[in-house]
Design brief:
The chain is α/β, with parallel strands linked by helices and about 325 residues long. The protein is about 30% helix and about 20% strand. The chain folds into 2 domains: about 170 residues, FAD/NAD(P)-binding domain, CATH 3.50.50.60; about 120 residues, FAD/NAD(P)-binding domain, CATH 3.50.50. The chain contains 8 helices and 13 strands. It has a 6-stranded mixed beta sheet with strand order 3-2-1-6-5-4. The protein has a 5-stranded mixed beta sheet with strand order 9-8-7-12-13. The protein has a two-stranded antiparallel sheet with strand order 10-11. The C terminus is likely disordered. Bound molecules: flavin-adenine dinucleotide. Flavin-adenine dinucleotide binds next to helix 1, strand 2, helix 2, helix 3 and strand 4.
């Protein structure tokens, strides 16, 4: 297949908030700029992150408030028991995302940035190859800006698939689970867990640290912890999920509390780099299973649940396009 060649002053790889803002500014300064995006303009934030999560949270809040009026309300308001058509909620959220990503495309165009749709593969510091709908395009540049963001990472003991899902899937549910287990009490896990609770799911959060939102000041986290309690969300601190029950490895699914196990075993619990922006969630329909007579949850099993995965390492850009995220 014939290779097409192109050149530019600035080449930006990645059309998320990092990449598109830089490209727009460069365009405003009159710098010839090309932006390569393999998926949708707007990146994680606009498509599968900040914006859709806040839209879902808004819908969950509205549903929760409507639910609170179904019984006796101190305001004297009484409604019937509300229901939610989640497919319609997701469509509403998608429309918001569509408007915003369309706006990013318009801004890039207005400022003279050429957008190339395809996965970039870096050949050297000044050359990138892009597969544009099966046609190879080689772009030479004076300056290369990598803004390739992050993507969900599989936990080795709980790879994606079946009930194990990432935040991306949790933002676009086709049905609501009876029970969501969130692994990791960072802000993404908490906000999605709280939203699902307000939508009516039972929610359990498992966190290996001694408290939620470890990156934030303890005083600020207290009201959040109180809110979790008020909403009836079960929180297991100093506990790490090892896998799903029902897998070949019978230990899979165990939830260890590190303080109950010898130091040598502690590394077996799920260590998650703090620099990553998100962690795993589990969505499921059953309860924790504990052996008869057990007095702590350290030997309990997580049932085989749908799982939402959230760890976000940098995306590789030096691999072949075939191995790029889809
Ligand atoms: C559920 C969730 C909720 C969040 N909520 C918030 C929030 O409320 N507030 C907040 O500030 N942040 C939030 N974040 C984090 C926020 O989304 C990220 O910080 C932000 O998107 C990072 O921007 P970025 O441009 O660096 O990367 P990204 O937004 O990830 O964009 C990178 C882009 O590069 C593209 N790309 C990657 N490799 C290639 C390649 N080889 N070729 C071509 N294109 C490529 C990707 O397709 C992607 O579009 C949230 C994240 C998640 C997952």
């Amino acid at each position: 297949m014939a290779m097409t060649h192109s050149s530019t002053t600035l080449l930006v790889v990645g059309g998320g908030p990092g990449g598109y803002v830089a490209a727009i500014r460069a365009g405003q300064l009159g710098i010839p700029t090309v932006l390569v995006e393999g998926a949708d303009l707007g990146g994680t934030c606009l498509n599968i992150g900040c914006i859709p999560s806040k839209a879902l949270i808004h819908a969950a809040d509205a549903f929760h408030q409507a639910t609170s009026y179904a019984g006796e309300s101190p305001l004297g308001i009484r409604t019937g028991t509300p229901t939610i058509a989640i497919a319609r909620t997701v469509a509403w959220k998608d429309a918001i995302v569509g408007r915003l990503t369309g706006g990013v495309g318009a801004l890039l165009k207005k400022n003279g940035v050429r957008v190339v749709n395809g996965w970039a593969r870096i050949l050297d510091g000044k050359t990138v190859e892009v597969d544009v709908g099966g046609e190879p395009l080689r772009i030479r540049c004076e300056h290369l800006l990598l803004a390739t963001g992050s993507q969900p990472v599989e936990l080795t003991s709980m790879p994606f698939g079946g009930n194990v899902v990432s935040s991306t899937e949790v933002l676009a549910p086709s049905t609501l689970p009876d029970h969501l287990v969130v692994v990791g009490a960072g802000y993404i896990g908490l906000e999605l867990g709280i939203a699902y609770r307000k939508l009516g799911a039972r929610v359990t959060i498992v966190e290996s640290a001694g408290r939620a939102l470890l990156a934030y000041d303890e005083e600020l986290v207290k009201p959040v912890a109180a809110s979790l309690k008020r909403l009836g969300i079960a929180v297991h601190l100093e506990a790490s999920v090892l896998g799903l029950a029902g897998q070949a490895d019978k230990r899979a699914g165990a939830m260890h509390r590190p303080r109950h196990i010898p130091p040598a075993l502690r590394t077996r619990s799920l260590a998650r780099p703090r620099s990553r922006t998100s962690r795993a969630l589990l969505v499921g329909q059953s309860r924790l299973r504990c052996p008869p007579g057990s007095t702590s949850s350290s030997d309990c099993l997580l049932p085989a649940l749908p799982v939402l995965r959230l760890p976000m390492p940098p995306r590789p850009v030096c691999s072949s396009p075939a191995s790029s995220p889809t």
